[in-house]
Structure formats: C-alpha cells, structure tokens
C-alpha cells in the first residue's frame, strides 16, 4: 500500500538524513521504526506526508506518488495519513473537541471550520472516538488541562477521525511514563487492528517495540540496516543499529516483561 | 585569569587585566567628557536668572492654580469623551492594520522574505519611531484640526508598536502544533485559524490592552497641536494663563490615566 | 483498558446532538451585556465624530505632496536649523539619560519591597507613580513655565520621565532576583552597601544596561517633540516646517529621526547580546 522508493533527504546544512530508503508497507501492517536519535526516523515519516520535502526518491500511497503532488493534491493525500506526535502537538488553547475535529479540516471548507460548524457525522464520530479512548467527559476541556497520557489519546483521536489508511506515529511515548507508554502503544495497535490500518511507529525503546509489533525496521545514519521480525533482533543487530552495548540484558528483560504482561 | 605578578613575585588578583583596565577607564573618561560638553551647551542656552527665580515662579503659579476652578468641569465632558474615543478607536484601527503587517513581518509566516518582510519591517520602524504628537501635527496640516486627525495619528503611531510585539509573538509559537494541523490536510487559512491564531490570541489581547493604556495617555495631549480631545482645553487655558482651569484639567487627565491603568491591569489579569 | 469507564457521560446521549464551542464568557447575561455595550459604545463613538470630509478631501492633495516629499527630502535649505535642533536633541537625550539613570538607581533600590524599609518604599513608589502618571509634554509645559524656554526644561522633563520608567522596571527586577545569591553575600557579614554591591548589583546589571539603552532610545524620540512646547530640540524646527508647509524639510527631519532610532535599536541589540 505504501511504497518508498530510494527516498533521500539532504538538509540545507549538507547533512544526509536519509539515504535511499526503500520500504514497502502492506495494508494493515504495523511496523516499528527503531534507531538512535538522529538516525532519521522523524525525517522519514515527515518525508512521507511532506512536512519535510524529500530531496529525491518517491513515496507512493495506493499508487499515487505523493512526492510530486501539487499543494491541493498533497492536502487530499494528507487526509489519508493520520499523524501522531511525540509532544502530542495538540493546539493547547483549543478544546479537546476542537482538537479532534481539526482532524477533519481537510474535508470541510474554510468558513465551516472557522465557525466550528462541522457536519453532524463528524461530531458523532468525534464523540465515539472520545468514548473509545475513555475521555468522553473531557470533550469541552481545554487541551492544556489534560495530562500527558490524556493528551496523547486526544492526539490519537485527531489522527483517526481523518479516516486514514496509514498512521504516521512519531515517538508516541517519549514524553510519557512507562505504564502510560504501554497503554498508549496498546491503544494505537488495537486501533490499527480494529480499522485495518497500516502504521509506521517511530520508537527508540526497543522493548516496547518488540512487545507490540510484527515487523521492525532499523535505521542508522539514514540507512535502513534491518528489516525483520522482532525475534530476529539479535544483540548483533542492535549493536549495528545503536552501537556497542551489552544487549543481552535488554533482550532478557523483554522476555521478562512479556511474561509479566501475559500473566 | 586576570591576575598579575607583582615586583616581589606574588600574584595579585585583579578583576581586569591591564589593558582592560585602561580601556575601561578611557570609556568612563570619554563618557564624562561628552556629558560635560553636553551640559555646558545646555547651560549656555539657559537664562540662569530665570532658574534662580524658579522657586518663586513655581510658588506663584502654584498659588494661582490652586484651588482648581471646579465648575469648569462641566465643559470637560465632551473633550474627555473625545479623548476616550481617540484612544479606543485608534487602538482598534491600529490592531486591524497591525495584524496583517505582523504576519508579513514574522519569519515563519511571511509570504516572501525578499519583498513583504522588509516592507512590513519598514512600516513598523517608521510608524513607531515618530511620536504620536508629530503624526498629529502632520495630520492636522493634512486633514485639518479636529478629532479625526488625532484618531488617525494615534492609529498610525500604534501600528508599528502593536505589529512589532505581535510579530515577535508569532515567531515564538510552537511549530509542532502548526505542523499537526498541516498534517491533517488543512489549507493554509485553516492552518492559520487552528494552528497559529489560538497560540497568539493571549499575546494579542495583552498588546491591545497595553497599547490602549498608552493611547489614553497620549491622546490627552494631542489637543496641544489641534488634534482634538482634552488637550485642546489645556492649550486654550494655557494661552490665556487661566491657571485654575489648567490645574483642574491636569487633575482630570491624571484621573483618566489612573483609571486607564487600572482597567488595563484588570483586563490583562483576566486574560492571562 | 482503563479508559473504558464512563464518567457520567453516556455516549448514546451525545450522538446526533450538535456540538458547539463553549463560549469564552460562561455567564450568558454578562456575555450579552458586554456585547451590547460594545455595540452601543461604537455607535455612540462613531456618531460623535465630526469629520469635515470636504476639508479632508482638500487635504489629500497636501498629504500626497507630503508622501512625494519623502522621495526628495530637503536637507539643505534649512540645514543650519536642522543641525542645531538635532544637536540640541542629542544633548538633551544624553544628559537626561545619564542623570535619570543616576537618580533611578537609588530610587529603584528604595522601591524594591524586599530590600527597603516600609516608609522609604512608599516614598519611592510615590515618586515613581507621579513620574509615570504625568505625560512628558505636560511636564515640559510646566517646566517651561517655571524655568523658561530652552533645553534645560527639556533636560529636566526627560530626566524626570526616565526616573519613573527605569526605577519601576529596575525595582521589579530587584524584587524578582535570586534570594539565595543575595543571602549568601549577606551571610559573609557584608555591610548593606557591600551587600548591594556584591549580592544585588551583579544580578540586575544586564537588565540595567538593557533598560538604559532602551530609555536612551525613548528619550531621543521624546526629545523630538518637546520643542513643540518650547523645551528645546528638533521639535521647534519641525513645528516651523509644518507651519510653513515645507514638507521637504519635514521629510528630512523625520528621516533623520527614523535613522537615528534604527541605529540606536541596532546598537542596543548588539550591546544587550553582549552583556547577557
């Protein structure tokens, strides 16, 4: 469904953030993108919806080449790619409801959005999503009154109300505590399963990634150096991605966590 | 570290090394000389006889001015109303003009860095460098004396002030919130209304109230050059040396300024 | 999933109902009062304006001449007046800023509630309030009446205005300062002056320098209008030029003022960046 072909990004400073990344994501598959900070994870997902303009290569979503679209076409395609951010990126001075409905901006005209007159179906869907993530009572609270975990749930709702085919998720748990991190990851993965969504989740926490996804992609200095199942992540591979470290311990902890989680 | 070794070989601690000390000393000396020359110039142009006589003159004026001519207050209603309108409507017009200029001037929202931004910055610097009284002087000579000239003068002077503070606020917004709205597929205007405007709204309200407070002060004196408001009464009372009226007008202005400051402090407290 | 608990809100009760943004002011009567009040005020304010449109129309031609004058400012025909006025403005600016700062510092110390005793605090705050409440032009008028025409009145006006501005902001800065640093110096057994010198001064110095330059800028701008009431500076020249409709000269003076203000702002940017 999503196909990246030799996607490359070179910043004005000359830093090569991505070099010729090839990646194919089938419908409904959730993949974790791991790598140290600065490896180009954020750049990769931002090049897909062109918040960052790729230098060369292409990204194709269901046969439409996103990289060559004009601004109108790009906006239409962006509606099909929901994005979830590290620091939640809610508009803090708007209410929860406005934040969620802002996910429909690509579908409604300027004046309707300006006057907050969204179609009833959008409003209903927003309430359903809020109810699904357990925040129905928060609809008219301002976003900056929410806790981190709550904000991220709203962020998830905003992405899902776009009715996307693909979720681009940028470090969803980096600002959250371990327990909330797992809840959020579980929520994202569950939502993807319910709606048959593909997702690319940037995450630096290997354990968390291994717990929830079927496929892991490793990025290092803009190069894709691993693509496989979580079980294939050997200490050897992790050393190639993150550098020298005693990875045995990490891997063992993961097993422990899994047991604990299963019980 | 600035320290030196003295004749007997011990280290002596100093805040600055020798050259730094000399430079520092020279700068202070230069400043003192400039100040002295400037002061002499002022002194040359001063009739010191008047200055020595000043306490007596001040006492004399004070004696004539007090008590204020209270019954004159009935004639001040309309001028005060005009003053208030000049300040309020002037602030309003200035804000209407300042918003697009601020968006043109802010690095992150300007439509073009080569043309729109320099133009906006030029408007900002030229309108705010020139005092509102000078703008009033200019407008009186263009549109004739009256409230209208004062209103336009206050508006023009405030444009640069408001636009400068506003564009600084725009440059400080959290870009990821804007990015998030852009990622949903919103159009340029939708990104503006959902991503940028909510973030700068508190700054906008603060600037509006702040400038309104300043404009109340400034509009009280515009009448001195014929641009309407209570300053007109002040000017005419001064011309006929009607000191009891002058003292009343000054008292009224003082009260207006204090009320203005009180209101703006309250409103700002409510917003933030 | 912990979130599946409903807290008093049934989804079914929400579906199909329209959603509206909660209003900025919650109480409906207050909201309407403010709205109607604003509309009524605007109607009254606009209707009380008397604009002589034919006069305005006649003036447009003059306005256009003024704008044209900016493309060909006339620096030469009144050059001696301009030079004299500008020198006077600069002199008034420099002297009043220096004197104003010198007086502001002790007043700021006195007006900081964390280091000054109550009576001194009240006295200093009173001085600051008076200075801030009185418009420069009004002060200038009084000083001209008392001391006679000339730059002395302007110098006194600007010094007086500087006190209110600088002492207030500085006092706030002193009140916000880091207590621990100041206490550390006090605990060494320093005298009050030593304490101010070592515990307080280093903390407020960058702000003092920044504010002083900012005030220099303001004083220059103000000095340009004091001449209107006879308190010296370029304002008198400007006023004469306006009276004679010599827009070329007016443009020249305004351009000089704008350039000087820009230069001062640029300079203050550099200095503030260096002291930080």
- The count of β-strands of chain B is 2
Judged by helices, strands and strand pairing, the structural class of chain B is mainly alpha
| Ends apart, CA distance between termini of chain A | 36 Å
Mean pLDDT of chain B: 84
Total domain units of chain A: 1
- CATH architecture designation of the largest domain in chain B: Orthogonal Bundle
The total count of helices of chain B amounts to 11
CATH architecture of chain A: 3-Layer(aba) Sandwich
Instruction: Count structural domains of chain B.
Output: 2
**Morphology call of chain B:** flat
**What is the average of the pLDDT values of chain A?**
85
The oligomeric state of the chains shown is heterotrimer
What key phrases describe this protein's structure?
heterotrimer, B: 272 residues, mainly alpha, MetI-like fold, 2 domains, two-stranded antiparallel sheet, 75% helix, C: 276 residues, 76% helix, disordered N terminus
Give a summary of the structure in a few sentences:
The complex is a heterotrimer of chains A (263), B (272) and C (276). Chain A is α/β, with parallel strands linked by helices and 263 residues long.
Please characterize this protein's 3D structure.
The complex is a heterotrimer of chains A (263), B (272) and C (276). Helices cover 39% and strands 22% of the residues of chain A. Chain A is of the alpha/beta class. Chain A has a single domain, classed as P-loop containing nucleotide triphosphate hydrolases (Rossmann fold, 3-Layer(aba) Sandwich). In chain A, α6 runs parallel beside α7 and α8 packs across α10. The radius of gyration of chain A is 19 Å and the shape is globular. Chain A starts with a strand and ends with a helix. The C terminus of chain A is likely disordered. Chain B folds into two domains: 47 residues; 195 residues, Orthogonal Bundle (MetI-like fold). Chain B is 75% helix and 2% strand. A two-stranded antiparallel ribbon of chain B has the order 1-2. In chain B, β1 and β2 form a beta hairpin. In chain B, α4 crosses α10, α6 packs across α7 and α8 packs antiparallel against α9. The radius of gyration of chain B is 26 Å and the shape is flat. Chain C has 276 residues and is an all-alpha fold. Chain C folds into two domains: 47 residues, no CATH class; 198 residues, MetI-like (MetI-like fold). Chains in contact: A-B, A-C, B-C. Chains B and C meet through α1, α3, α4, α5 and α6 of B and α2, α3, α4, α6 and α7 of C.
